[in-house]
Amino acid sequence: MSDKLQRTLIILKPDAIHRGIVGEIIDRFEQKGIKIVGMKMAKLSDLLLDKHYAQHKGKHFFEPTKKYMQMLPVVLVVLEGLEVVRVVRTMCGPTDGRNAPPGTIRGDYSGAISRNIIHASEDEKAAYREIKLYFKTTEIFGYDKPDAHFYYDVERGE
Ligand SMILES: Nc1ncnc2c1ncn2[C@@H]1O[C@H](COP(=O)(O)OP(=O)(O)O)[C@@H](O)[C@H]1O
Ligand SMILES: [Mg+2]
To answer: Residue 94's pLDDT is what?
Structure first.
């Protein structure tokens, strides 16, 4: 298996659910050849959000962000692919939707840093931690796609 094969966590935030764009967003990752290996809906508890956003505790946006993340349930997705942590972050775009370039998810859908549609793990360490926070190992599914050769050079792991 390629050492570039990674998993990452995305969260479709309450604004994505409310606006009915969950399918469109997930479609972007599927079109890119990124594999869905876990997916579920959940209402995020205070405790989970404290853990998830631990690095932001004490910042001015910490409490408002927690409130925003609890407006509706969210959709949690584990994605797999080559260098997928970085690729997915790039596809999401910068945190502030008003500064995010068109073509990125936040650039196309978000008009405010406080309503930015999607979360994506920032690096491999965060991805490992976040996937473990939300998913049991039995909720993640490894499987082969017969057309993988048309998305990646599978032999070379490139
Ligand atoms: N200045 C801010 N004002 C309001 N909300 C913010 C601000 N900065 C960050 N947030 C919210 O907190 C989340 C976590 O922030 P951060 O980790 O810096 O961004 P990212 O989600 O791009 O990794 C953001 O996605 C956003 O929902
Ligand atoms: Mg972050």
So the answer is: 98
Instruction: Provide the strand spans (E) within 21-126.
Output: 35-42, 74-82, 118-120
The answer to the question of whether 99 is labelled as a binding residue is no
The preferred substitution site among 114, 118, 122, 125 for testing ligand 1, maximizing ligand atoms within 8 Å of CB, is 114
Least Cα distance to 16 among 119, 148, 145 occurs for: 119
Distance of alpha carbon 92 from its chain centroid, rounded?
8
This prediction's pTM: 0.97
Q: Write out pLDDT tens, residues 54-110.
A: 999 999 999 999 999 999 999 999 999 999 999 999 999 999 999 999 999 999 999
| For ligand 1, atom 12: residue with the closest CA | 65
- Given this model, what pLDDT does residue 3 score? 87
Map out the domains of the chain with their CATH numbers. 5-141 (3.30.70.141)
**What is the distance in A from the centroid of ligand 2 to the CA of 122?**
6
Can 119 be counted among the known catalytic residues?
yes
Q: Tokens for 144?
A: 């082969």
